[in-house]
Specification:
The structure is a single chain. The chain is of the alpha/beta class and 374 residues long. The protein folds into two domains: 181 residues, 3-Layer(aba) Sandwich (Rossmann fold); 178 residues, Rossmann fold (3-Layer(aba) Sandwich), CATH 3.40.50.2000. It has 15 helices and 13 strands. The protein has a seven-stranded parallel beta sheet, sandwiched between helices. A six-stranded parallel beta sheet has the order 10-9-8-11-12-13, sandwiched between helices. Strand 9, helix 9 and strand 10 form a beta-alpha-beta unit. Helix 3 packs across helix 4, helix 4 packs across helix 5 and helix 7 crosses helix 10. The longest helix is centred in the N-terminal third of the chain and has 18 residues. The chain starts with a strand and ends with a helix.
Length: 374
């Protein structure tokens, strides 16, 4: 008999938590059935989950009155589905989904913390959800999963109680791997010479990701042998704020705006380095292991577990430090141009590190152990 896991998530837009849920739900397991409820909606992973044969229900919560009605709709859906486990994702879903599942008599409720820190710029409602969740954390969930050891420490400090479990994110090695063919295709698409260094940032346009920090860092580099490509929702030519920054920093000939893509596995093969200049909020950024699995070294800010994930296979800098970030990007470019053997060894180390520590098989096994606990 299959064990039914009902996932409740805040949205199915482009994001790390959504990506991990998709990986777990679409992973080949004969004894588990997955059902997904999104409190709002979200196009990207809605389509991907449906394509993978996973049932998805979108509640479109908005406004107090409708949200209350949708809460009762969620309760009824949980009652009708009779899941073995309700697995929730992120603060809003943890609280709303946790309460609904508890009221419907679900005995195995698992929360998931995806934020590496609690930042002053977070919305008031998010902060309120965190405080209430901390109070209820000892009563509602059987376990609280996080992909970040730093996140576990921080949430314990703000009052989270109960069993907290670290499960690293995992990568699908059958999709993310080095490919000269993919590299050539990406570079041909964007007219990048093979001799030119291509630096990439793969992240949605959001203050948390701090695109401005990266652009300021790039503006300090006066070399001609590189380009930077920005990939993710909100990084297209329609973003007037981003275009203004690029223009003011005189980077029009350096920056390529791509927008959201569904072929990140190809993009990672096409770039020489991934940069993630996040200001706050990262727990375990999936893009780092996606890049490393293709042999692409990473330059990250010291937020959440980014430094732990990258290890000695890349560079770590302080957040909001354009000069420090610029120095590391320049060093990386010079390595690629002047010392190809050193770059190749670093690239191989990235692949080995992912294969040893961050594969999807281990991630799925970790979640399954939690789900199957009595």
């Amino acid at each position: 008999m299959k064990r039914k896991i009902l996932h409740v998530i805040s949205s199915l837009n482009d994001g790390g938590a959504e990506g991990v849920l998709y990986k777990l739900a679409s992973y080949n397991s004969k004894d588990i059935e997955h059902v997904v409820v999104s409190l709002t909606c979200g196009e990207k992973y809605n389509k991907l989950l449906s394509k993978a044969g996973i049932r998805v229900k979108n509640l479109h919560m908005k406004g107090v009155r409708k949200s209350l009605l949708d809460f009762f709709s969620l309760c009824f859906f949980i009652y009708k589905e009779k899941p073995s486990v309700v697995q929730t994702w992120m603060y809003h879903a943890d609280l709303i989904g946790g309460i609904a599942a508890s009221l419907m008599g679900v005995r195995n409720i698992v929360w998931n913390i995806r934020s590496g820190e609690i930042h002053h710029s977070q919305k008031f409602t998010t902060k309120a959800f965190i405080k209430v969740s901390a109070l209820l954390s000892r009563y509602i969930p059987n376990a609280i999963i996080s992909c970040s050891s730093r996140a576990i420490e921080i949430h314990k400090e703000v009052g989270y109680k109960g069993k907290m479990i670290l499960i690293d994110n995992g990568i699908d090695g059958s999709l993310y791997y080095p490919s000269y063919k993919k590299r050539a295709e990406v570079r041909e698409e964007f007219s990048i010479l093979d001799s030119s260094v291509l630096v990439g940032m793969v992240a949605r346009f959001d203050p948390q990701k701090d695109h401005l920090n990266l652009l300021k860092a790039i503006s300090r580099i006066d070399q001609d042998n590189y380009k930077i490509i920005l990939v993710g929702s909100g990084t297209s030519l329609e973003n007037t704020t981003l275009l203004q920054w690029i223009d003011e920093l005189r980077l029009l000939d350096k920056v390529i705006l791509v927008g959201q893509r569904s072929d990140i596995h190809r993009i990672m093969c096409g770039i020489d380095f991934l940069v993630l200049p996040s200001l706050y909020g990262e727990a375990f950024p999936n893009v780092t292991i996606e890049a490393m699995s293709t042999g692409t070294p990473c330059i990250v800010t010291d937020i959440g577990d980014s430094a732990r994930v990258v290890g000695d296979c890349g560079w770590v800098v302080r957040p909001n430090s354009p000069k420090e970030l610029s120095d590391k990007i320049r060093a990386a470019i010079n390595m690629k141009v002047d010392d190809s053997a050193k770059y190749d060894n670093l690239s191989k180390s990235c692949i080995d590190r992912v294969n040893q520590k961050f594969l999807i098989k281990e991630m799925f096994s970790g979640y399954k152990r939690v789900w199957c606990e009595k």
